[in-house]
Amino acid sequence: MFGDYSLGDLGAIFAMQGFAGLILFSVYVLMALGLAVIFGQMGVINMAHGEFMILGAYVTYLCSTFFQTHLPGLFGIYFFVAMILAFLASGALGMIVEWTLIRHLYKRPLDTLLATWGLSLILQQSYRTIFGAREVGVELPSWLIGSVQVTDTIEVPINGLFVMAITTLITVGVGLLMYRSRFGQQVRAVMQNRPMAGAVGIDTEKVDRYTFGLGCGIAGIAGSAFTMIGSTGPTSGQLYIVDTFLIVVFGGAASLLGTIASAFSISQTQSTLEFFLSGSTAKVLTLLAVVGILMVRPQGLFTLKVRR
Amino acid sequence: MNAAILSSPIIGESPDAKDFLLSVEALTVSFDGFKAVNDVSFYVDPNEIRVIIGPNGAGKTTVLDLICGRTKASAGSIKFKGQELTKISESAIVQAGVGRKFQTPSIYDDLTVFENLEISFPRGRTVWGALTFKRDAEVRDRIHEVATMIFLKDQLKERAEFLSHGQKQWLEIGMLLIQDPELLMLDEPVAGMSVGERIKTAELLNQIIVGRSVLVIEHDMKFVEDIAHRVTVLHQGKVLSEGSMERVKNDPKVIEVYLGH
Amino acid sequence: MTSPVQTLSKSLTVNDNPFMKPMEWVSLALLAAFILIVLPATLDAFRLNLVGKYLTYAFVALGLVMCWGYAGILSLGQGVFFGLGGYCMAMYLKLEASSVENTKIQSTPGIPDFMDWNQITELPLMWKPFQSLPLTLILILAVPVFFAFVIGFAMFTRRVGGTYFAIITQAIAAILTILIVGQQGYTGGINGITDLRTLHGWDIRTDSAKFILYFLNGGLLIGCILAAQYVKKAKLGRILLAMRDKEDRVRFSGYSVAGFKVFAFCLAAGFAAIGGAMFTLQVGFMSPSFVGIVPSIEMVIYAAVGGRLSLFGAVWGTLLVNWAKTTFSESFPELWLFGLGALFIAVVLAFPNGLAGIYRSYVEPRLTRKVKALAPVGAPVPHGTPAE
């Protein structure tokens, strides 16, 4: 399959596909981060995670229209406002959901899965009712349009670079929050030994609620970033949910670094394959490889031997 | 019940390894570098009641986990009637004749006492066997026999969920008895029991010792004195002392661990 | 030592583990009468065919009761097995419909039309076995069950279960859908395999054929219920329940837990495959839209609504949900997804044992009271074994 290309061409293809893979990687990481927090730390499967992401995307869309009509002068920075609002909206919805639904089901993980699937259906239909079935896109501010010419054959789009910058920022932020802050310490304490954490004065229910909210909020930011590179429809979230779950599981559930490494390998494999094969074959091969590896090594890529 | 092993003496070191029912040698397991069990060796004779004691975290439960295959050993060997156990699956270990009772009563809440015992009946253990299993007179008689021994013959039709804590412990012991194992491992069988229940349990253990060996983890020293033929003391994953209860009690190292701080 | 015990056990030698309890026979009779008499007598040909289609999903729900309710293994990929069974059937029917005579306008006559459109000039190897009806009938069961065996064996011997297993099965459903859609030339792509006409020369599109197929479907369904009932009543059924709650205890009672899980998963796959094949026969096509994530998880809700531990409940649940779906999407299409979503949540939060649970805690006590009042000297009503 490499026959028709010269070596220089191949280099450029790999570089550009690699960059396309990096953008996919960014979206995957942002989605998977939220999921890794919820699934990895709480053991809860949130099937509505994609819909929380789409909520962020719709919030961003609303923001962009609002700025366009009411504050055109500030349009250049609307995205930052949108991102914060997306985080707050998804996070708040997440906390409500945790309080009304998830907390009753902590001992029944499979049932959580079904209930959150129900939630995702309701959210999808709500989006359809409110925003219509058609996909919506946001207007990019002028400074995000265009691309940077790296060499004669390689050019990279600015919005892609921007998404990657945001991803890096959020990832570092989440990492600091989980491993360096008091809140992160409490979260990990609750997950490791709930009764003990309760006994030393940690409000475990509150920690659960905030953890879930945090995971959903990050999904909201993912949705916000998602609008930079694609359009948003009521069911867009569902397209990513399986990939995201696989990433989290493949990375070894509880480890943030593992999640990032696994998102990287999956997105790079997929986007490189995509150039040479049809999109669907690339996706099938990637997913098959992941499922195959998980069957042989179910604990994921990055886990330690732990005492059962 | 089991005529295969009857003759060997209860106490006294036998020089020949194949006379032991269970020989654990240089057993070691580490979790992320932490050696929960470190170079542990001990030997159990046929028809012996051996009690393992030791402070919390000494590695007692881990030793049982290793013998029954729940945890895989990092090094060392476990021989049961000359067969190496560290290499075979949990179900094969059970079928070789090792029964294990867990610390918290582990029974099937949704099933009746009868059904709990029936599942443990050592027949029809394959998928096909379980599909074609017949509840015949042999099964019924054996279940009633065991239920009588474990003081539950009037509760056979009750859901296990509704038994008292002590009755649940007995039921699990019964589930092991019905397998007729040559080595029975019990993890704190009298924990949480009332005084009356303890006495009955000691009686039960002395009854079921016929034809088998029992390996018990227990904290209740009174109970240990009542039942133990020999005692092994574990401390920080190592064997600290071994011998009769009398000897172990007077061992300065043991006194140091239990009393001197 | 056994003498007092023997006398005791004699009093218990009455069959305390019958194949079905009286109430269960009644349930079976009610269900059979409803499916095989009431519905055919009251519905027109179109509606009856629609119910026939719903009932093919009931096979999947039945499998889920065994696999999820009993063994505790939630598969979110049952559409895979439904689809594989359905595709096997469809491939045979398609080949029969693509005789050289019927396809003489194609550039390569004698192969299915979609292959011709995709420039395939020879029947692919994987289609060859489906030229034979007996082989097809075997493959309808063998392919999905083998597939389930491979997945189950790989996962369960490595102690993967619970949510991990659910996610993996879901991913497999996604992969298979993408694969079928992507490989148009071999699978018919997104449209699926359509324009099916005859089964071994018998035209399946006529009203009378559909009528007969409906009864075949109903009969097979009741056959599967009886088979599942047999498994449930055998010691194996109790082992599945025991395993679900105390896996380690079962393992340390000398059972190889993985083997039993694989069996439950394969059984569910087999049921789903029969459903899929009957779907193809009655509806006249098979497409990837019955394979993927969404249909797979919807099939779980049928079992959940009926009651995850009740075989009859699974069938009633399937009928009810699908009836609601048809009614709502005809008159209030907007509301249906809200309703379905709410159903998922309500069943999990408020009625974890579904219709069967409601029946058992509210209806049955009253019924038995009435029965007792009618027959005061009758035998005591046996109290139900738990978790049926």
| Series of H and E elements of chain C | HHHHHHHHEEHHHHHHHH
Counting DSSP E segments of at least 2 residues, the number of strands of chain A comes to 2
Shape of chain C: globular
> Could you say which overall geometry of chain A the principal axes of the C-alpha atoms support?
globular
Mean pLDDT of chain A: 84
Low-confidence stretches of chain A: 304-308
**Cα distance, first to last residue of chain A?**
47 Å
Number of domains of chain A: 1
GO molecular function, one term (chain B): ATP hydrolysis activity
Domain ABC transporter (chain B): 22-261
EC number (chain B): 3.6.3.-
Keywords (chain B): ATP-binding, Hydrolase, Nucleotide-binding, Plasmid, Transport
Report on this model:
The complex is a heterotrimer of chains A (308), B (261) and C (388). By secondary structure, chain A is mainly α. Chain A has helices at residues 7-42, 49-70, 78-100, 109-131, 158-180, 182-192, 194-199, 204-229, 236-250, 256-276, 279-296; strands at residues 147-149, 155-157. Chain A has one domain. Helix content of chain A is 73%, strand content 2%. A two-stranded antiparallel ribbon of chain A has the order 1-2. Chain B is α/β, with parallel strands linked by helices. Chain B folds into two domains: 19-96 and 180-193 and 208-260, Rossmann fold (3-Layer(aba) Sandwich), CATH 3.40.50; 104-179, no CATH class. Chain B is 34% helix and 23% strand. Chain B has helices at 60-68, 90-96, 113-120, 127-132, 137-149, 165-177, 195-208, 221-227, 245-250, 252-258, and strands at residues 22-31, 34-44, 49-53, 75-80, 83-84, 98-101, 183-187, 213-217, 230-235, 238-243. Chain B starts with 21 loop residues before the first strand and ends with a helix. Chain C is 70% helix and 1% strand. Chain C contains 16 helices and two strands. Chain C has a two-stranded antiparallel ribbon. Chain C starts with a helix and ends in a 14-residue tail after the last helix. Residues 1-13 and 377-388 of chain C have low confidence and may be disordered. Chains in contact: A-B, A-C, B-C. The A-C interface holds A 39, 43, 45, 101, 104-105, 108-115, 117-125, 128-129, 238, 242, 245-246, 249, 278, 280-281, 283-284, 287-288, 290-291, 294-296, 298 and C 68, 72, 74, 76, 151, 154-155, 158-160, 162-164, 166-168, 170-172, 174-175, 178-179, 181-182, 293-294, 297, 300-301, 304, 334, 337-338, 340-345, 347-349, 352.
